[in-house]
Structure formats: structure tokens, C-alpha cells
């Protein structure tokens, strides 16, 4: 009997030791999850606006190189990010959720190909090169999903798992939350980015959807990041306003939130920052015209989209 008890105690000690060595799940970041959820909903329901289908998964990843140098030791030991990209958030009812992926998972391979060494990306001295390395890792997953699915090797709790990840066709939904005190949103290298300051300024998911929809529209329409002439900038901004509102409408968000949001934003930021954008009156006119064009009827949410807000 004593021998059995000693064996049980030994096994318990081994289990505790193994658990201590396994990477912790990443911190719960409700802001990242919120941006992922709204971006996925816009992309899934706006698919008919996008001629080139994009493989939606509902995953938001984080990378060793995204952490400050002083925090990377913690990111390695606690989150396991020295092995590959980590799952930061999973959108409900998405292909990633259906596949069983969860925050804290580490992606090791996609269709048998390993991801670029996170340390090699993080060791790049130039911030732009680090960002390019991060984006290349994410595009490796997109490439594997080119036929609709990818065979993943995932590290979870110290064990390798094989997971089949599917995808759903939609609009480009490379959305990202940037931690910044500046109230801003922009499109960069195919990503729609909103800052934590602007996310905090928004009073509802409807307002966030209007912000993200506008930036996603720049990506969908292929607008250059530096278009040059002021007239072209204004034309592109107006086109992004109109398409972004349509994306939000198709996803079931309330477009009536747009005008109050822009008025509050203008009051906070000031008109000088909008010299290359449609003016105050022009932007309100675009919103009113778009609402009139679409009519009052709410759209039906598409398959795979999120119905709740």
C-alpha cells in the first residue's frame, strides 16, 4: 500500500513539474479579441464585395518580435514564442474555433513547413524589417490555406498536436490592434490597423466596425499607401468611406453611428488633420447617401458570420 502511495506521489510531482515547464497561455486581451471579432464579421459578410477570396480563419497571432526587447525573455518562457507564432485570440464560430485552436497554442508547421525562426525575426535591428518578418510568417499560413485548409503542427502544454485548420472565403481581414496613445487608424502593407487609443474612444462595436471597414476598404480597393496628389487622396478616401460603410451594413452594424462618431472625432482631433480627406460636410453627405442607397432593411448575416454583438 505504501509503495502505491509513493508511486502516486511521484507521478503527481512529475505532473506538477511538467505543468510548470509548459508555456502559460497569453494574457487575456479583450481588446485584441474585440478587433478580431469585428474584423472577421466584416470580412465574412462582405465577401460579395471582394473579387479575390481571402481565407478567413478567425485567428489573431502574436509574435516574439512584437514584444519589447526587455519583455522577450518573458514571452519566451511564459508563452513559448521562441518556437513559432502564438495564438492570441480565436473568434467564436470561426474555422479556427471549429478546428479546436485555442489561445496559448504555438504554431510550429503549416503543411509540413516550419515557420521562420522567431528569434531571427526579433533579432532584426530595424523595426520595419521585424514587421516584414512577422507579416511573412502570417502569409506563410495564408499560403498553406490556398486550397482551403492547412495541416498544422501545434505545440500545446508541451505536446505536439496535429490540427486540420479550415477557412472561409471572405474579404481580406488582416486586422491588427496597435498599442498607441495616438487616436488613429490606417491601412499598411495589407493590414487594417486601429490603435488602442481610438478603440477606447469608440463607444460601440458599430463605431469600431465603421473605423475598421474604412481601412479594410483601402486594402480591398488596392489603394497605394502614398498616393501622392491631394485629389487622388480625396478620391480614395471617399471610395473607402462608401465601401467601408457597405461592409459594416452587410455585417449588420448600425450605420447611423457614423455621423455622431465623426463629429466627436473631429471635435477631439481638429480639422487640420483631415486636409487630405473629405471635409466634415462631405463625409456626412457620404454617410447619408450610403444609408439612403442601402435602404432601411437590415441584411441577413452570411454563413459563418457572427450574429451577436
Can you put this structure into words, describing what you see?
The structure is a single chain. This protein has 309 residues and is an alpha+beta fold. It folds into 2 domains: 58-166, Pdz3 Domain, CATH 2.30.42.10; 175-294, no CATH class. The chain contains 11 helices and 11 strands. The strands form 4 sheets. The chain has a 4-stranded antiparallel sheet. A hairpin with a 2-residue loop joins strand 10 and strand 11. Helix 2 (30-45) packs across helix 8 (205-220) and helix 9 packs parallel to helix 11. It is globular and about 55 Å long. Residues 4-22 and 301-309 have low confidence and may be disordered.
Q: Mean pLDDT, nearest integer?
A: 85
Q: What is the count of β-strands?
A: 11
Main beta sheet strand tally, sense and closure: 4 strands, antiparallel
Q: Classify the secondary structure makeup into a structural class.
A: alpha+beta
Question: What's the order of the H and E elements?
Answer: HHEEHEHEEHHEEEEEEHHHHH
Q: Can you tell me the number of structural domains?
A: 2
Separate helix tally? 11
The stretches of 5 or more residues where confidence is low (pLDDT under 50) are 4-22, 301-309
Oligomer: single chain
SSE topology:
Elements: H1 2-21, H2 30-45, E1 54-56, E2 59-62, H3 72-79, E3 86-90, H4 95-99, E4 106-110, E5 113-114, H5 118-122, H6 127-144, E6 149-156, E7 159-166, E8 168-170, E9 175-178, E10 185-188, E11 191-195, H7 196-201, H8 205-220, H9 230-250, H10 258-269, H11 280-294
Parallel strand pairs: 9-11
Antiparallel strand pairs: 1-8, 2-3, 4-5, 4-6, 6-7, 10-11
Amino acid at each position: 500500500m505504501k509503495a502505491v502511495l509513493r508511486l502516486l506521489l511521484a507521478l503527481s510531482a512529475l505532473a506538477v513539474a511538467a505543468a510548470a515547464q509548459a508555456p502559460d497561455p497569453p494574457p487575456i486581451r479583450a481588446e485584441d479579441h474585440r478587433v478580431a471579432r469585428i474584423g472577421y464579421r466584416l470580412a465574412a459578410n462582405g465577401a460579395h464585395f471582394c473579387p479575390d477570396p481571402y481565407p478567413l480563419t478567425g485567428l489573431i497571432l502574436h509574435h516574439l518580435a512584437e514584444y519589447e526587447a526587455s519583455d522577450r525573455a518573458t514571452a519566451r518562457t511564459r508563452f513559448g514564442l521562441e518556437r513559432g507564432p502564438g495564438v492570441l485570440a480565436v473568434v467564436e464560430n470561426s474555422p479556427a474555433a471549429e478546428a479546436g485552436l485555442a489561445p496559448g497554442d504555438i504554431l510550429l508547421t503549416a503543411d509540413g513547413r516550419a515557420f521562420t525562426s522567431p528569434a531571427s525575426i526579433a533579432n532584426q535591428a530595424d523595426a520595419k524589417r521585424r514587421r516584414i518578418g512577422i507579416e511573412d510568417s502570417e502569409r506563410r499560413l495564408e499560403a498553406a490555406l490556398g486550397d482551403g485548409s492547412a495541416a498544422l503542427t501545434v505545440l500545446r502544454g508541451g505536446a505536439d498536436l496535429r490540427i486540420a485548420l479550415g477557412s472561409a472565403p471572405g474579404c481580406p481581414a488582416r486586422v491588427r490592434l496597435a498599442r498607441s496613445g495616438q487616436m488613429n487608424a490606417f491601412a499598411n502593407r495589407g493590414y487594417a490597423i486601429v490603435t488602442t487609443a481610438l478603440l477606447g474612444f469608440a463607444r460601440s462595436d458599430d463605431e469600431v466596425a465603421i473605423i475598421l471597414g474604412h481601412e479594410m476598404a483601402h486594402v480591398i480597393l488596392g489603394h497605394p499607401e502614398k498616393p501622392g496628389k491631394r485629389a487622388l487622396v480625396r478620391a480614395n478616401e471617399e471610395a473607402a468611406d462608401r465601401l467601408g460603410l457597405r461592409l459594416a451594413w452587410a455585417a449588420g452594424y448600425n450605420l447611423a453611428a457614423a455621423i455622431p462618431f465623426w463629429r466627436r472625432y473631429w471635435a477631439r482631433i481638429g480639422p487640420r488633420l483631415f486636409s487630405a480627406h473629405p471635409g466634415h460636410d462631405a463625409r456626412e453627405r457620404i454617410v447619408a447617401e450610403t444609408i439612403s442607397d442601402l435602404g432601411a432593411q437590415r441584411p441577413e448575416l452570411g454563413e459563418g458570420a457572427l450574429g451577436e454583438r
